[in-house]
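Renewal narrative, Specific Aim 1. Our central claim is that a sequence can be written position by position from structural information alone. The example that follows is taken directly from our test logs and has not been curated for this report. It begins with the structure tokens describing the chain, in the order in which they were read.
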């Protein structure tokens, strides 16, 4: 399961975008099932990801804000001389996707570069191995993943891998050489970030033979 944080569907070729942002994902989409209408349970990463892990709405799994909202709340509390900050967390009684898969015999791995996706909110439950590298770019995350190659291939049991990339999230960085292929526009830097992730996914899927 690969999550491309804050990546717009209308900036991917498979959804009709004209810029060359996603040749690998387009090829994968042409060989797969593409959902034309998809809706998120939230506009924020933490609640939306908790819904992805539990199949519940935020009001039911209890994660309604992420660290960004907590940080803004902390600034307000500090201005009033208070520093106690509540953190939303998925209840331990609510089974998560990796917990369910591990009980079914899967080995489970998680790798994230988003600050929200970690133990504080309960996202590490059910993983045999989980690492969070806040703000690591797609290339850095790919190198960490390749270090796990022998573990992923070890044993006869199937494995579940959760990969959460954060490159298309602000602040944006112009990615060379892909920025040069984009038409000059306010979104060109954003588009180059998507292409950067797409290239990493293409290389990683090939090296790990995930398309076999």
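The sequence written for that structure reads:
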């Amino acid at each position: 399961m690969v999550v491309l944080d804050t990546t717009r569907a209308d900036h991917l070729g498979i959804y009709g975008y004209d810029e060359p942002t996603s040749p690998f994902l387009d090829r994968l989409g042409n060989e797969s099932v593409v959902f034309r209408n998809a809706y998120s349970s939230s506009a924020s990463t933490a609640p939306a990801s908790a819904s992805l892990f539990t199949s519940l709405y935020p009001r039911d799994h209890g994660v309604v804000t992420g660290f960004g909202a907590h940080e803004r709340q902390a600034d307000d509390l500090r201005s009033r001389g208070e520093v106690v900050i509540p953190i939303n967390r998925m209840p331990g009684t609510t089974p998560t996707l990796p917990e369910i898969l591990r009980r079914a015999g899967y080995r489970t791995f998680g790798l994230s570069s988003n600050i929200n996706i970690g133990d504080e909110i309960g996202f590490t439950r059910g993983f045999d191995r989980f690492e969070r590298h806040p703000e690591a770019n797609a290339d850095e995350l790919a190198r960490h993943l390749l270090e796990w190659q022998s573990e992923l291939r070890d044993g006869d049991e199937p494995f579940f891998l959760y990969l959460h990339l954060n490159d298309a999230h602000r602040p944006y960085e112009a990615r060379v050489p892909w920025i040069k292929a984009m038409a000059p526009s306010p979104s060109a830097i954003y588009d180059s970030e998507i292409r950067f992730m797409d290239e990493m996914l293409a290389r990683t899927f090939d090296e790990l033979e995930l398309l076999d």
